[in-house]
Amino acid sequence: MDNPQDEPTHDQHNSRDNEMSNDMNNDMNKGMKKGLTSYGDQGFSLFLRKAFIKGAGYTDAALDRPVVGIANTGSAYNPCHGNAPQLIEAVKRGVMLAGGLPMEFPTISIHESFAAPTSMYLRNLMSMDTEEMVRAQPMDAVVLIGGCDKTVPAQLMGAASAGIPSIQLITGSMLTGSHRGERVGACTDCRRYWGKFRANEIDEAEVAEVNDQLVASVGTCSVMGTASTMACIAEALGMTVPGGASPPAVTADRIRIAEQTGAQAVQMAHAGLTIDKILTPAAFENAMRVLLAIGGSTNGIVHLTAIAGRMGLEIDLAALDRMGRETPVLLDLKPSGQHYMEDFHHAGGMATLLRELKPLLRLDAMTVTGRTLGEELERQGPGFRQDVVRPMANPIYPQGGIAVLRGNLAPGGAIIKQSAADARLMEHVGRAVVFENLEDLANRIDSDALDVTGEDVLVLKNIGPKGAPGMPEAGYIPIPRKLARAGVKDIVRISDGRMSGTAFGTIVLHVTPESAIGGPLAHVQNGDQIRLSVKNREIALLVSDEELARRAAASPVTVPTAERGYRKLFLQTVTQADQGVDFDFLRAAKMVGKVPE
Ligand code: FES
User: Could you give the 3-state DSSP secondary structure of residue 120?
Assistant: First the structure.
C-alpha cells in the first residue's frame, strides 16, 4: 500500500479475519471452498486458490456459484468421443442456465482400438484417475462424459467411490453407413465382412471399400455392443437423465440431453443427491434386467460387478441366470437381432423398453432427477407403434441373452451369450483343440496342418485378467481358415477372456478361475472331451479329478508378475471376472449386500 493512511487498523484487520473465518466456516464443503490444498493455513489456501482462478478471468460472483465439474474425455485417439467439444459446450450452457459454475477438467480416455495390450487393462487406471480428480478438485457435482466401452464403467466405478452427486452423459452412437446398398455399422458388420474376406468371399478391393463405410460418423459402435450396453445400463441405473442412452452422437437430441444433464447436475448439487442414493440394490437389479432384455454385451456383467463392488454390493450370478429364464430379449438390435442404435432411438429409446419391462422392474429406484424410475416412466406417457422393441408376448429370444455356466472346467463360473450363439451347438460334446496363448493361436489357427473339424471345441488359454494381461476381447477365436473356406460359420469356443459385445458365435467366456493362476482350464489337453450344455448350464471337462490333479502337479503354472509400474500394480491386485476384474484395494472395504436383495 503506497499511502500509510490506507493501511488497515488493528480492528479492521480483526474484522477482515473474522469475515474470512465466517466465509470459511460457511459452506466450507461447498463450491470453490471445498477440499482446500494443505498449506497449514486454510485462509491462505482459499486466498491463493481464488487468486489463481481469477487469473483465468473469473469474478467473485461466478466463484460463489455451485461448481459442476465436467470430466472431459475428448481425445484425438478416441473418435467415439469425437463430439466431446459440442457436448461440453451444451453441458456448460445447462449448468449456467441453472445457476452453477461449470469447470471442465481432463481425465484419461480409452478407445478400444487404440489401447494396447487391451482397453480393459486401463479401465481401472481410468477409474482411479476419475475418482481421485473428482475428490481432489473442488466440485459440488460432476458430469461424466463417456461412451466408448471402458469409459462409462470406469467413470461410474470412480464416481461410486468418490461419492459426490454424479451424472453420466453418454457421447452417443455413430450413424450407420452404406456399402453397395447394404446398411452397415461397427462393429458386427466389421467382423462379418472380415469373415467374408477370410473365407475368400470378397476380395481386397471390396474389404477396403467397406472399411470406409463401417464407421460413418463420430460416436460409439452402432450395434448392441458394450458401449450401447453400458449406455442402456447407465440409464437403467438411474445415472442419466431420462432418454440419455439412445440419441446418436451427432444429433440435436444428443446436444439437448447434454444441456439437460448440465442443468440437472446443478439441481443434484443443491439437493445433495449423492451417488449412493442412486446406486442401490434396486438400481443394480434394474440394470441386470435391462442387460438381459437388450441381449447386452457379456462385458456388461463384468462392469456391473465392478461398479456394484465399489458400493459394497455383490452381483449374484446364480440369480442373474434365474432372472434370465424369466426375462426375454426384447430389443431387436444386432448382433442378436437386426436393427441399429439409431433405430432404437427412433423407436423411443429406453422409455419404450422400460415400459415393456415394467412388471419386472424395481420402480422405487431413485434416479438423477430426484424422481424414481416409476415416476419417470409415468411422465414419459404412452408408447407408439414401432418394431425395434418387441412386446413381452413376442420376444426375439424367449430367455435372457446371457446364461451362467458352471462345471469342473469353471468352478467360479463362465458365461455364454446364448442369444448370439448357434442353436445347433448349445448341447454339444467335442474334442478339445488347444491353443496355449494368443501367440500360439496366431501361429497355428490358419495353418492347413491344424487338426480340426467343425465338431471340435477350440480352447484358448492365458487370456484372463492376469494372463494376457487385461482379459482382452480375444475370446472370439476366429474360425480356422480351412474351416471358414469349407463354409463353417460357427464352432464352440472356450476361453478365460472376454468377447466384444458386437461378436456372434457359440462362445464360452470368463472361465473362472483363469488358466494363468492355475484354474482347470490350464490343464486341458488336445483331444480331451468337453461337454457344453446350455440347457443344464454346464461346461464340463470329461477328465477325472485324479487325472486333472496329476496334470496340475506335473506342470504347475507360473503366475505372471512384473518388475515395476502400473503392470506390477495390475498383476498384484487384479481380481477375477467374478469380482469384476477390479483391483482388490479399490473395491468397497466391506461388502454390505447382494443383488438382487
Ligand atoms: Fe468405441 Fe466401439 S470402439 S464404442
Answer: helix
pLDDT tens, residue by residue, 59-79: 999 999 999 999 999 999 999
Q: d(Cα 549, Cα 551) in Å, to the nearest integer? A: 5
CATH for 60-175+219-276+367-377?
A: 3.40.50.360
Closest ligand 1 atom to residue 500 Cα is 2
Distance 364 CA to ligand 1 centre (A): 32
Residue with cell 484425438: 76
Residue 350 in grid coordinates: 429406453
- The 10s digit of each residue's pLDDT in 460-504 is 999 999 999 999 999 999 999 999 999 999 999 999 999 988 778
pLDDT at residue 26, rounded to an integer: 56
| Model confidence at 178: pLDDT above 50 | yes
Tell me if the domain spanning 402-560 has CATH number 3.40.190.290.
no
DSSP-H helix ranges across 237-349: 252-271, 281-293, 299-310, 317-326, 341-346
Taking CB atoms and a 6 Å cutoff, what residues make up the pocket around ligand 1?
A: 80, 111-113, 148-149, 186-187, 220-221, 225, 227
Q: Which residue has the cell 477328465?
A: 543
- The angle, 0 to 180 degrees and rounded to 10, between the axes of the packed helices 151-162 and 226-236 is 30
- Nearest residue (by CA) to ligand 1, atom 3, is 112
Give 188's pLDDT tier (boundaries 50, 70, 90).
confident
